[in-house]
Design goal:
- The complex is a heterodimer of chains A (747) and B (45).
- Chain A has 747 residues and is of the alpha/beta class.
- Helices cover 31% and strands 16% of the residues of chain A.
- Helix content of chain B is 82%, strand content 0%.
- Classes of the chains: A alpha/beta (747), B mainly alpha (45).
- Chain A binds chain B through residues 1-4, 37-38, 40, 159, 161-162, 238, 240, 286, 317, 321-323, 537-548, and chain B through 1, 5, 8-9, 12-13, 16-17, 20-21, 23-24, 27-28, 30-31, 34-35, 41-45.
């Protein structure tokens, strides 16, 4: 009898957290995705993971290359062969970069979705001469990594397994969102760890927290300055560590003194005594962590706020200690993407053309170059591209240049695994930017509004269709195995293949010698003296034995070799070397609410999965969340439709009234569009409910140092309206249930 | 840091180091037993 059923280890890429689980295939199709068989990993699966067969076998998967035949955005296509598509793309890209210069080529991508690019995109761009690579990590995690490096030279990972205190700045891991973090927090609480939540609303994590501070959206930096004021005034900091390993303490203390608790209470809306209690709880814990949060990433004072998290970790003695936050460094057995990207091959002249380099340099090559020497000294390689985020162009600067051709034209735009139109601030500008392109290429698993604007759409593969060894993009020191269990459909292929094939067509083939993904994995694993086949037969995960307080041997990877409480890099660039709070532009009578966007909902990741029946069923329409008192004042009830306007734009969504919301705030979920409206509404309803329409990216709304737009607390107003005519499937009954997903979601 | 806390940290550091080694051995053992199970299954003919 033939054995046609197969089970292999996988790393899920439906969201960014990368749960390790198992995929089953039967008769060439993924039939089931189930929990890992190791007890330590078995709880790390959400219902999106259970829905993977529905995603990967979906009837609308792109399987053939498409070439535009109508007007841009008209969504009319002809199928062509992969060879023809690649030949034409290479010829057109060559002509554009010849005419306008290599910097006229920009790429927007999401490493979470594409998984196995192995930095070949950066390698290709660096060899071609373009610095203009952007990604959603500019708004989330990647930018945090870059800003952390300013203070102590790496991006630490919280030791949730041993910590005694967890501080969540708006971060809200749940059973079905950021599941492994949720499970780790639960385990920590079970052994007595304290949890402090700072969130305007009563989030799931806030409900179970030891302390919940309901701060006003967008005031994280002020809150942290208040904590430092308490910690310094009451002598709760690690004096020996500060004396021996920090620079700039006196200046910092002077800055912190500008923020007495009364002032901080006024800015944040949190009583002074609660701020003090939280600061004491954090500082006095024997091992405390402030895990990465997407909330602090996206504020007007984001650079300062992220630096303040770093500073809190350092001055309380929680840096690179057990139960605190560990600095991992590069893997010693797996060649990191930082090396594969060949950043050293991009000339200084081209690096200086990177959009954002002059105005908002914190995560651009400008800062990467300033940290090159200490990074090589401490970590052994000069370019530490942690979470892909440490030498990016600034997205706003790229889109502005695409529209205005100032400071130079950007005329070719590739989007890989990235629905760029809905993924950054100021969606109307991104639309204009894309309409002003001579070549747009999308590499996707489904047709998206962004792909509809392309000249060529190439079908992408998914995680069950490829082999991989994941290293958390250099953020973790763990290697994890993901195995191919089925073949990609028809002509679908990986981004690894795309960049390799393009390079060979553009005369860069010698620099792309790898013949397959497995060949690339062999190369990367060669640092540990193994092949992929050997690794995959040996283990499904490998942990690097931790080493703590490594700075005692090497110092920190900063210009001074110390923790820079006052950042020499920011000072040299003409910015304030000390952290500060920048007040939000004032609210007005016309726009009485504080709107916060970018919020993640359990059934979806970013702009994805709205076409998956069983997931959409769990959230059929986008919701605007507001407090009962605000709903009463506006004459709105649960289920009404409302128009939310900001000075930047207008969207329509359904009202969800919650006691848990903070009065005066409106919460908007991220990334909504309507795949079911393809062919009925322009770009499948991409402008009806998308939060990116609401977010401004004019200078007054950008963080100074990174140029990150402010998503957490900008002015808005509400008005009752009727449901848009085209939007019809707005109840669960309109969407088909799946037994496995339902069972897991309700478990 | 108090002496007591310092000793506790040392203990936890050693524990973390040993845990990584033991976990790696356990993962390998699990993988080997899985491979043995698969090879004992009926194969395509």
């Amino acid at each position: 009898m033939a054995a046609t059923k197969e089970t292999k280890y996988s790393i899920c890429t439906v969201c960014d957290i990368g749960c390790q689980l198992r995929s089953e295939a039967q008769d060439g199709k993924v039939s089931r995705v189930i929990a890992h068989d190791n007890p330590a990993l078995a709880a790390n699966i959400c219902y999106k993971g259970t829905a993977v067969p529905l995603i990967h076998n979906h009837k609308d998967r792109l399987t053939k290359p498409l070439k535009r035949v109508g007007e841009r955005g008209e969504d009319r296509w002809e199928e062509i062969s992969y060879e023809q598509a690649m030949d034409e793309i290479a010829a057109k890209l060559g002509a554009i970069t010849q005419k306008y210069g290599p910097e006229s080529f920009a790429v927007s991508t999401s490493g979470w979705n594409t998984q196995t690019t192995h930095s070949l995109d950066r390698r290709f761009m660096n060899l071609l001469g373009s610095p203009n690579w952007i990604s959603g990590v500019a708004l989330c995690a990647g930018n945090t990594a870059a800003v952390n490096r300013l203070t102590y030279g790496w991006f630490p990972m919280g030791d949730l397994g041993s910590t005694n205190c967890i501080v969540l700045f708006g971060h809200n891991p749940r059973k079905h969102s950021w599941t492994p973090i949720y499970n780790a927090i639960r385990a920590a609480k079970a052994r007595g760890a304290k949890v402090i939540v700072l969130d305007p609303r009563v989030s799931d994590q806030a409900e179970g927290a030891d302390l919940h501070l309901r701060l006003k959206a967008g005031t994280d930096a002020a809150m942290c300055l208040g904590w430092l004021k308490v910690i310094f005034d009451e002598g709760l900091y690690d004096e020996a560590f500060v004396r021996d390993w920090c620079v700039g303490f006196a200046e910092l203390k002077q800055r912190v003194d500008e923020y007495p608790l009364e002032r901080v209470a006024q800015i944040t809306g949190v009583p002074a005594e609660d701020i003090a209690t939280a600061a004491r709880m954090y500082a006095q814990a024997d091992g405390a962590v402030i895990p990465w949060t997407p909330i602090t990433d996206q504020q007007l004072s984001s650079t300062s706020a992220i630096r303040l998290h770093s500073i809190l970790r350092a001055v309380t003695g929680n840096l690179d200690v057990v139960g605190g936050e560990t600095l991992g460094g590069f893997s010693q057995t797996y060649i990191p993407e930082s090396e594969i990207g060949l950043h050293e091959r991009l000339s200084p002249q081209q690096k200086a053309k990177q959009l954002g380099y002059d105005d908002h340099p914190a995560f651009t090559y400008r800062v990467a170059e300033m940290l090159k020497e200490p990074t090589e000294k401490v970590w052994g390689f000069p370019y530490a591209d942690i979470v892909m985020g440490c030498q990016m162009a600034n997205p706003t600067s790229v889109f502005r240049a695409m529209v205005s051709e100032d400071p130079y034209p950007v005329k070719a735009f590739f989007c890989l695994g990235n629905n760029a139109l809905l993924s950054y601030a100021n969606q109307h500008q991104i639309h204009q930017a894309m309409l002003n392109q001579e070549l747009i290429v999308a590499h996707e698993i489904f047709m998206t509004p962004t792909a509809m604007l392309a000249d060529y759409v190439l079908p992408g593969d998914v995680f069950t269709e490829r082999n991989h060894v994941a290293d958390g993009w250099s953020w973790t020191t763990r290697l994890a195995l993901s195995q191919k269990v089925v073949e990609p459909p028809a002509e679908a292929s990986s981004t690894f293949q795309f960049w390799t094939d393009l390079a060979h067509r553009m005369g860069l083939g010698d620099e792309f010698p790898w013949t397959s993904l497995e060949d690339m994995l062999d190369y990367r694993l060669s640092r540990g003296g193994r092949t992929f086949a050997e690794f995959a037969s040996e283990t499904f995960m490998e942990l690097a034995p931790p080493k703590f307080r490594k700075y005692r041997d090497t110092g920190f990877a900063t210009p001074s070799g110390k923790v820079e409480l006052a950042s020499s890099v920011l000072g040299d660039l003409g910015f304030d070397p000390l952290p500060y709070y920048r007040a939000l532009p004032g609210q007005s009578e016309e726009y009485p609410y504080l709107v916060f966007t970018g919020v993640r909902e359990d059934p979806f990741f970013q702009t994805g999965q709205r076409n998956i029946e069983s997931l959409r069923r769990r959230m059929p329409a986008p919701s605007l969340y507001l407090h009962t008192s605000d709903a009463e004042r506006e004459g709105l009830i649960d289920g009404d439709w409302a128009k939310l306007s900001t000075p930047q734009g207008v969207v329509v969504a359904q009202i969800a009234v919650h006691e848990t919301m903070k009065a005066g705030h409106i919460r908007v979920p991220h990334g909504w569009w309507y795949p079911e409206l393809r062919g009925e509404a322009s770009l499948a309803g991409a402008f009806i409910s998308s939060d990116a329409v609401l977010c401004a990216d004019s200078d007054e709304w950008l963080d100074h140092e990174q140029g990150v737009p402010h998503f957490k607390g900008f002015p808005g107003k509400l008005e009752k309206t009727t449901k848009p005519e085209q939007v019809t499937r707005t109840t669960a009954a309109h969407w088909q249930a799946d037994q496995a997903v339902e069972a897991h979601a309700e478990s | 840091m108090t002496k007591r806390a310092s000793i506790r940290h040392r203990y936890l550091e050693c524990k973390a180091y040993v845990f990584a080694h033991l976990a790696n051995r356990m993962f390998k053992k699990q993988m080997r037993s899985k491979a043995a199970t698969v090879s004992a299954m009926p194969q395509d003919t």
